[in-house]
UniProtKB/TrEMBL annotation:
Protein name: Putative GH family 25 lysozyme
Family: Belongs to the glycosyl hydrolase 25 family.
GO molecular function terms attached to this record: lysozyme activity
Coiled coil: none
Signal sequence annotation: 1-19
Keywords: Signal
One BP annotation, GO: signal transduction
Cross-referenced InterPro entries: GH (IPR017853), GH25_Enzymes (IPR051595), Glyco_hydro_25 (IPR002053)
């Protein structure tokens, strides 16, 4: 009887230990947020080197996504469960959380190195509540500063200054601006102002209002009044379009500002002779690839001589903080 009790006790003890072992070996839950990838953890545990983002983990409200960066011998990276794929290298001991959360870093490093930070771009005029909400989640905001304005041949966007001031007051550290130029022939017969004039008007608005713009972007995309757009763009024929685009790029490079090109590879051949037509690959690319996947290093659609990007617009015409925006990832 005593021997039987001993056997039962031992069996029970082994069962408890086995169950405990299984709990310890359970993989940490991964999560993905606009600020990047992370792991789910209770907010009672410190998210050292990062921040908790709510709404991306199962369970209680206190279980949130810890999004943390790290620095390994291979370079800068992000803290992720090792169950995630890392095309760089995982290094232990550099991240908060369980032992299976390690630093994913290295050239091309999966969802770590090269993924960038969360951003958005906006053209409308949002309520004041939008900016404080955006500042808590997004590191970069790109504001439309100049529009086609085909009734005038190009014009400064009427809400540019107000949006900049609101973003600045909310504490958004990186504010970019983009120029959507007048580049086509219009049904109303109004000619587009020269690239020099449009650029001068845009930069004068920046300087005269004391703006500090981090990065400037030149928006290249076709529009057509036949498709319901307000203006025509890049409808001059492939040869003339390429010549005009190169004229614009030269003006941008001579402006003394940091410029990049915003464009969609799938629209390239509607404007230029071929997908390989290079009008300015010496400038960095903000690629449009609306696949819903965050991370600059997930861009796979290139054109015009570019083989890499520094920003990715991954979701179009969506809502964030109650306002219509596009979502992006930006390298910093």
């Amino acid at each position: 009887m005593r021997f039987s009790n001993l056997i039962i006790s031992l069996a029970a003890g082994i069962a408890v230990l086995s169950a405990h072992s299984l709990v310890q070996k359970r993989a940490t839950t991964t999560c993905s947020t606009p600020s990047g990838p992370g792991f789910c953890s209770s907010t009672s545990t410190a998210c050292t080197g990062g921040t908790y983002v709510s709404g991306y983990c199962p369970g209680a409200a206190s279980v949130q996504c810890c999004v943390a960066t790290c620095t390994a011998p291979a370079g800068k990276g992000v803290c992720e469960p090792t169950s995630n794929s890392c095309s760089g290298t995982y290094t232990s001991g550099l991240c908060p959380g369980p032992s299976d959360v390690e630093c994913c870093a290295g050239t091309g490093g999966g969802s770590g190195t090269g993924s960038g930070v969360a951003g958005l771009d906006i053209s409308g005029t949002p309520p004041s509540s939008f900016w404080s909400c955006a500042a808590s989640t997004y590191k970069v905001v790109a504001i439309e500063g100049y529009i086609q304005g085909c009734a005038q041949g190009g014009e400064v966007k009427s809400n540019f200054v107000a949006n900049y001031k609101a973003a600045k007051a909310a504490g958004i550290s990186r504010i970019d601006a983009y120029l959507f130029p007048c580049t086509g022939t219009q049904p109303n017969g109004v000619a587009c102002k020269s690239p020099a004039t449009q650029l001068s008007e845009f930069l004068n608005a920046v300087d005269s209002n004391g703006m500090t713009i981090s990065h400037y972007w030149f928006d290249i995309e076709p529009t057509s009044t036949a498709n319901g757009d307000a203006c025509n763009a890049w409808n001059l024929g492939s040869t003339a379009n390429a010549a005009l685009a190169k004229q614009w790029v030269a003006a941008l490079q001579n402006s003394g500002r940091t410029w990049g090109i915003y464009a969609n590879g799938n629209q390239w051949t509607t404007m230029f002779a071929s997908r390989s037509t290079d009008i300015g690959s010496q400038l960095p690319l903000w690629a449009v690839q609306a696949d819903g996947v965050t991370g600059v290093n997930t861009v796979s659609t290139f054109m015009g001589g570019w083989t890499s990007a520094v920003a990715k617009q991954y979701k179009l015409d969506t809502t964030a903080c109650g306002t219509g925006v596009d979502l992006d990832s930006f390298l910093t």
